[in-house]
Amino acid sequence: MSPIRILIVDDQPLIRTGLGMVLGATEGIEVVGEAGDGIEAIAIAARTTPDIVLMDVQMPHLDGIEATRAITTGNPATRVIILTTFDIDAYAFGGLEAGASGFLLKDSSSADILGAIRAVSSGDAVLAPRVTAELVRRYGELSAPAALRDSMAEQRLAQRQSAMDLLAELTEREREVFDALVAGLSNGEIAASLWLSESTVKTHVGRILAKLGLRDRVQAVIFAFRSGVI
To answer: 0.85 exceeded by the pTM?
Structure first.
């Protein structure tokens, strides 16, 4: 089995070194590069096509959010995990909107970091969807400037109509799985509630994400929130 190929991006050399030592010593993981800013990260990602990028947010020249957007747009197969100082903040939200598959606290344990990498590599999200929903809800309530509210309302109306058109393409069973997914249920929980096997649920989730043009469960929750489904 091929190793999971990792790119580490952080403007602090000590953090890059620490992560590199931990990941480099782990079987099944290969560190393919390190970058100290967003511009360097985009260049190295294009050259090495990593499976996963561990991405800092606040960096010189180009921040991690814009770097995430560029990397996930240029190579949709690459997954990005945002590294943040706080568990729920606007930086983490911005990263998720830009295409990241979740976020990690910088002081996470080695076990948590490795678990997150393996989860994202297998197509899951770093954090439970219900936590992502809370993140999106808080950002929507607390961070939107008053001057943008009317514009945002118009955008949300258009987004909702577009989302409903896409959701109409789902089968009845796929819509049941989608509703359970964005409610925060795991594949096992969905399987139990709908009397399906976990492998069948996984197949449904893959088809749902493909039909909606989404990369993972985190993006499905954001899609549901932005469209007014939740």
So the answer is: no
